[in-house]
Specification:
The chain has five helices and no strands. By secondary structure, the protein is mostly helical.
């Protein structure tokens, strides 16, 4: 299954406040697509929404490792460090 489709499903689960399923889906997505910066970004966004800041920061950093030009992750990482 393509990472974009898994991202969309995860976003829908998050909106429905099905947090355990959301996190599991995003864990699966990054395991299946370790070279997808967007998969890590969405995982970070889910953790951030659930106020799980340390895992969110870790996911954003991994997204930047995969794609250093992913600006949204740079912003989110800075926000978690309190530098923006």
């Amino acid at each position: 299954m393509p990472p974009e489709l898994l991202n969309d499903i995860g976003d829908a689960l998050l909106v429905k406040q099905r947090s355990d399923e959301t996190i599991e889906l995003f864990r699966f997505n990054v395991a299946q697509h370790p070279n997808s910066a967007i998969a890590y970004d969405r995982q970070g966004r889910a953790y951030r929404t659930l106020k799980q800041h340390e895992p969110a920061l870790k996911a954003y950093r991994k997204a930047l490792d995969v794609d250093p030009h992913l600006l949204e992750c740079r912003y989110c990482e800075a926000a978690h460090r309190g530098t923006c």
